[in-house]
Amino acid sequence: MSFSSNVKNELSHHFGKARHCNVAELAAIINLCGQILSIRGQICLKIQTEKVYIARKYFTLLKKTFNIDSEVSVRNNTRLKKNKVYTLIVKDQKKIEKLMRETGFQKDSEPEFSLEKHIDADIVKRVCCKRAFIRGAFLAAGSLSDPEKSYHMEFVNQSRNMAESMRDIINSFGMDSKIVERKGHSIVYLKEGEQIVDLLNIMEAHVSLMELENVRILKDMRNSVNRRVNCEAANIGKIVKASVKQTDNIRYIMENMDISELPETLIETAELRLKYPDASLKELGDMMCPKVGKSGVNHRLRKLNEIANELKDNRGISHD
Fold it and tell me: Which fold, 3-204?
């Protein structure tokens, strides 16, 4: 299964401790994948999903929270023939009416059913109910990319108003979710790995949270190692380039002047650099008598480069 499916599978086994939390979770599910239909003159509630474990969660929520026995049917997905579509249908008029009232879709003053996409503020007034609502929303219309490739979590909404309300609920936990329009839908999304971890914790998907954290740690370690290797490779490249230039300049000096005219310190430095072209400044300094620090060795090598450049200038030769 994909990482997103693993998260949903984990959430499908989690139920709120209080009835009001289960009501909030059902409100999200009905909002995002529910329909009110008229079949042979009777009103019914229809909820669909492509995952059997999510269908089982919906069935259990309806039974546990409202004592509703829903009819379950299975058919092949017409678009993706390998997948199945699980449909739950509730036909009991009185129970549908109770369900709609408690999940905020129908007020006592409203005589007819409707399924306007909105979130009743009373349903999510508690923090625990906000958590449950987000959990239900992810089961119904959420997805999470493979964290090995990228960090991206989203919730697909059919209306902008619904998306804005969901964004506000998520952001009430200190998140920074945003909305983007895509193919006629309003998408609430998060792209920061740390915030996705926090939202998994909010939904109480603790196993998936640990898996994502492990991936993040390994990715951070790999990135850190790669940065260090690249940095060291760049430094080695600079050192090698400088050493080659130094040895070329020393040879040019020896070919074009009497090196014995130079101070003994420069002669010693020149001879050691030619003998040990791969040695670092510290290693060269440790070979000198007396020992010389890195800055002292660097100063001497710069002086030798300047002498070589002066000789080249006198002959009209480029320094490169």
Answer: Endonuclease I-creI (3.10.28)
